[in-house]
Design a protein that fits this description.
Belongs to the guanylate kinase family. With 187 residues, the chain is α/β, with parallel strands linked by helices. Helices cover 41% and strands 21% of the residues. The structure holds adenosine-5'-triphosphate and ligand LQESDW3C.
Length: 187
């Protein structure tokens, strides 16, 4: 059975870091999603996201789309199919609203991974260290989506696997266990 590891949680908890690690260590491709937000330093179009204008964003066909801290984000059916052509096990990084939609649409094919940290105060530091502009950090941390994604939504309790991503070494160990469960034959 094909599976999508849906990596979700609040901003700065390490979703993209986990997705990149799964690709590097286990060759698990990431579904690239679309956004209207500006690029961060070092990001590349077609690698980190498909960066869109509001007009071009509206032209795609989305499995789900959301507004997050004032920008639009969406994952397309085509993106999912393209990733499944490469591998039976793929990952995607979504906010919690998107993760709920993936469970409704893909059912058992969606493996939900909710990332959290012990103290939400460290998230601000992580975003600063990542090179985010102060203005962007402040508006994001004030957004209702940020507050919402700090807590596992009720619909995902008992469905999601939770990793407290404070210690990267422990996170690596837990990811190894998850991949072994989902991809036993190839390890
Ligand atoms: N376990 C960890 N310990 C310390 N720093 C970490 C850890 N995991 C990730 N980071 C760092 O935290 C920063 C934010 O990580 P990342 O970009 O992966 O978060 P994210 O959840 O994808 O954020 P966003 O939703 O804003 O895109 C990065 O600089 C990353 O290197
Ligand atoms: N529901 C969706 N959420 C998405 C998608 N692509 C990214 N995201 C989430 O948006 C926020 C902000 O991302 P950032 O890269 O600007 O920090 C974060 O929670 C991502 O997981 C999507 O297609 N659908």
């Amino acid at each position: 059975m094909k599976h999508v590891i849906v990596i979700t949680g609040a901003t700065g908890t390490g979703k993209t870091t986990v997705s990149t690690y799964l690709k590097t260590k286990y060759q698990i491709p990431r579904i690239i999603t679309h956004t209207t937000r500006p690029m961060r330093p070092g990001e590349k179009n077609g690698v980190d996201y498909y960066f869109e204008t509001p007009e071009s964003f509206a032209e795609n066909h989305y499995l789900e789309s959301v507004t997050y801290a004032g920008y639009q984000y969406g994952s397309s059916y085509e993106g999912l199919e393209r990733a499944f052509e490469k591998s039976d096990l793929v990952s995607i990084v979504l906010d919690t609203k998107g993760a709920e939609t993936y469970v409704q649409e893909l059912k058992q094919q969606a493996f939900i991974l909710f990332l959290t940290v012990g103290q939400s105060g460290i998230l601000h530091e992580r975003l600063k260290d990542r090179g985010d502009q102060l203005e962007m950090i402040q508006s994001r941390i004030k957004s209702k989506e940020y507050t919402r994604d700090l807590t596992l939504p009720e619909d995902l309790i008992g469905v999601a696997t939770v990793i407290q991503n404070d210690d990267w070494h422990r996170t690596e160990e837990k990811l190894g266990e998850i991949v072994t469960k989902l991809q036993p034959a190839s390890l």
